[in-house]
C-alpha cells in the first residue's frame, strides 16, 4: 500500500495524496468516464509512464480509483469527493479575490 502522511488526521493524509503532482489532473481527466492507460496518458500531456503508473497505484491503494475492463475509473469514494473539491475550488477563488483586493499576490 502507498505510504501516506503518518498522522491520525485523515484530512492530512487526503491532502498528502491530492497534493502529489499529477493526482488532481488524473482525477480531472477521469470525470467523464473510464480511460485506458494510453488514453489517460494522452489526456495528461504525455505524463511519463513511470509517474502515471505511480499515481495510478497510489489512487488505487487509497481506494479512490479502480481498474476495470473499460479502463481506470473513480470509485464511489472519489465520486463523493467531487463536490467537496468543487466547493474547495469555489472557496479558493473567493479567497484569491479577497487577497488581490487587499493588495496581496496570489
SS field, number of helical segments: 5
Cα gyration radius (Å): 16 Å
What is the overall silhouette?
globular
Tell me the strand order in the biggest sheet.
Answer: 1-2
Assign the CATH topology of the domain at 11-75: Arc Repressor Mutant, subunit A
* Main sheet makeup: 2 strands, antiparallel
The CATH architecture of the domain at 11-75 would be Orthogonal Bundle
Global structural class = mainly alpha
Strand content: 5-15%
Summarize the structure.
The protein is mostly helical.
Tell me about this structure:
The chain has 106 residues and is mostly helical. The protein has a domain at 11-75: Arc Repressor Mutant, subunit A (Orthogonal Bundle), CATH 1.10.10. The chain is 58% helix and 8% strand. The protein is built from 5 helices and 2 strands. Strands 1-2 form a two-stranded antiparallel sheet. The mean pLDDT is 93.
Architecture blueprint of SSEs:
Elements (H helix, E strand, L loop, with lengths): L9 H9 L4 H7 L7 H7 L5 H13 L3 E4 L2 E4 L1 H26 L5
Antiparallel strand pairs: 1-2
Q: Could you list some keywords that capture this structure?
A:
Arc Repressor Mutant, subunit A, 5 helices, 106 residues, two-stranded antiparallel sheet
Amino acid at each position: 500500500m502507498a505510504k501516506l502522511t503518518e498522522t491520525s488526521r485523515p484530512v492530512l493524509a487526503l491532502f498528502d495524496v491530492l497534493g502529489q503532482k499529477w493526482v488532481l489532473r488524473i482525477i480531472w481527466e477521469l470525470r467523464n468516464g473510464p480511460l485506458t492507460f494510453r488514453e489517460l496518458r494522452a489526456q495528461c500531456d504525455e505524463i511519463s509512464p513511470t509517474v502515471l503508473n505511480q499515481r495510478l497505484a497510489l489512487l488505487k491503494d487509497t481506494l479512490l480509483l479502480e481498474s476495470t475492463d473499460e479502463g481506470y475509473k473513480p470509485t464511489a469514494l472519489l465520486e463523493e469527493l467531487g463536490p467537496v473539491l468543487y466547493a474547495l475550488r469555489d472557496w479558493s477563488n473567493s479567497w484569491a479575490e479577497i487577497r488581490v483586493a487587499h493588495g496581496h499576490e496570489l
